[in-house]
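Quiz preparation item.
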């Protein structure tokens, strides 16, 4: 089924391309938040197991994909801007759930900290509150390529690090997509990464403690950049969170192979369709060096 396309005006500041996949029998709507340098196309595999159960909303950030022609790109937008856009789209589409991937977890968590009344549960995938050594190395190399707007090098970096477990076909798509981005998109991600690396970590985690709905964190077993063990530090700050590790998967989870797709489907649907509960599945010792990771 083809989606209904609309360009939504956000506070007379941004115009956002949206895709609404309607399910006439669905009672709930879920909104999906992209990772860095990605567009709605990145959720092609995820849509396959969500749309039979829910209405699904996808969107491109103002600087990316099909939103680009509708916006000026005179300055990078902040993570707070992205959270504000998400909150407005939640109201526009009356979303009940949200799901984020990778960098999209930043906007998702900041939006959830404002306690949007409509959202009942959220799923945060391939995301970590820690900047570990592999992630810091990736970010430092990425900032050099992004500042130079060297799209070929950015694509090769992504495919050799967080994308190293992707099938060869997806790697070729990644390289083609990333190497052909507009200059403002590389500078946008440079600004985001620079902001992440220098943010006030402890204040950020305390802010996220305001989230009061059930959250599910999904990470890949072999993802060294947003590692499954690192994300469990959230249990110290969130009142109701669960954790799932996808076996034999890296950062891109359901895009990597059929087994990871099936595990992701099972974990997500089980969580969203179950009655809410109020116990955390893990308690971890606090770490003094927290940061929201791309």
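Solution:
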């Amino acid at each position: 089924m083809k989606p209904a396309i609309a360009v939504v005006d956000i506070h007379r500041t941004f115009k956002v391309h949206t895709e609404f996949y309607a399910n006439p029998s669905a009672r709930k709507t879920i909104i999906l938040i992209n990772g860095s340098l990605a567009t709605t196309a990145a959720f092609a595999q995820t849509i396959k197991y969500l749309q039979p159960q829910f209405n699904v909303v996808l969107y491109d950030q103002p600087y990316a994909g099909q939103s680009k022609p509708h916006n000026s790109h005179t300055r990078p937008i902040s993570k707070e801007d992205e959270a504000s856009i998400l909150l407005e789209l939640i109201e526009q589409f009356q979303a009940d759930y949200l799901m984020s991937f990778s960098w999209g977890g930043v906007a998702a968590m900041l939006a959830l900290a404002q306690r949007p009344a409509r959202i009942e549960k959220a799923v945060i995938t391939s995301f970590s509150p820690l900047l570990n050594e592999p992630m810091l190395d990736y970010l430092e190399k990425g900032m050099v390529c992004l500042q130079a707007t060297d799209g070929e090098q950015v694509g090769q970096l992504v495919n050799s690090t967080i994308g190293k477990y992707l099938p060869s076909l997806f790697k070729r798509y990644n390289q083609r997509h990333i190497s052909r981005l507009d200059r403002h998109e590389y500078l946008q991600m440079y600004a985001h990464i620079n902001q992440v690396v220098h943010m006030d970590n402890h204040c950020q985690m305390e802010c996220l403690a305001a989230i009061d709905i059930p959250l599910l964190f999904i990470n890949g077993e072999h993802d060294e950049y947003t590692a499954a063990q690192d994300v469990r530090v959230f249990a110290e700050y969130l009142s109701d969170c669960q954790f799932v590790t996808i076996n034999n998967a890296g950062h891109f989870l359901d895009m990597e192979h059929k087994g990871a797709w099936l595990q992701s489907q099972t974990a997500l649907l089980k969580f969203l369709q179950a009655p809410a509960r109020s116990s955390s599945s893990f308690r971890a010792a606090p770490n003094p060096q927290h940061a929201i990771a791309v």
